[in-house]
């Protein structure tokens, strides 16, 4: 889902089945729900039979929207990956940021694996902001280009704190065990100008210690 076939081809690495959420980068517009399973024909045939008996089928409009989106992943994902790498490098040197998590950075523990398996490093990064969750609450509303949502992979930049979105049902102890602190922010890069996104992040991060959104 995150790498897509544009950046990584798991079947060539010996994987039997590959599962993608087409809702994310493949569709690319955050307006349709769908999924893709690829692999050896005998395995896919079993899954196809199960799909038939359970009635899992795209509605016509979702099929149309995904067919539209699937025409442009090369253009979108390459740009998103290039922008994400620029943003990750910028944030890694930012005084308001504790840590950046992105496989394109040499500091990432799986950087060498990603270099070997992928042609680029994807459009999603995460970073922790100094100042805890209060800093996150101060920064996110001030972002002008990033939409606050739990989705990712769209042409628009999307941002959200996993502690209160994707992992909101987990306890603080469970999130800590998974390496998800309260000050972590997930940032899915869109196709906007990366200079605009960097400037937007800078102006918002400057206000991480503010007591009011009017500051």
Description:
The structure is a single chain. The chain has 215 residues and is of the alpha+beta class. The chain has 2 domains: 4-69, no CATH class; 73-205, Aspartate Aminotransferase, domain 1, CATH 3.90.1150.10. The protein has helices at 4-7, 22-26, 41-54, 60-69, 73-92, 111-117, 132-139, 172-177, 194-205, and strands spanning 17-21, 35-39, 97-101, 124-129, 147-148, 158-160, 184-188. The strands form 2 sheets. The protein has a 5-stranded mixed β-sheet. A two-stranded antiparallel sheet has the order 1-2. The longest helix is centred in the middle third of the chain and has 20 residues, at 73-92. The radius of gyration is 19 Å and the shape is globular. The termini are far apart. 29% of the residues are buried.
Give a short synopsis of this structure:
With 215 residues, the protein is α+β, with helices and mostly antiparallel strands. The chain is built from 9 helices and 7 strands, in the order αβαβαααβαβαββαβα.
Name the CATH superfamily classification of the largest domain: Aspartate Aminotransferase, domain 1
Count of structural domains: 2
Beta-strand percentage range? 5-15%
In the CATH scheme, the class of the largest domain would be Alpha Beta
The main sheet orders its strands as 3-4-7-6-5
Secondary-structure element pattern, one letter each: HEHEHHHEHEHEEHEH
The low-pLDDT segments are: none
| Largest β sheet strand count, sense and barrel closure | 5 strands, mixed
Indicate the structural class.
Answer: alpha+beta
Number of helices: 9
In the CATH hierarchy, the architecture of the largest domain is Alpha-Beta Complex
Overall helicity = 40-55%
Distance between the termini: 39 Å
Dominant shape: globular
What is the fold-level CATH name, i.e. the topology of the largest domain?
A: Aspartate Aminotransferase, domain 1
Count of distinct strands: 7
Mean pLDDT over the full residue set: 94
Give me the Rg, rounded: 19 Å
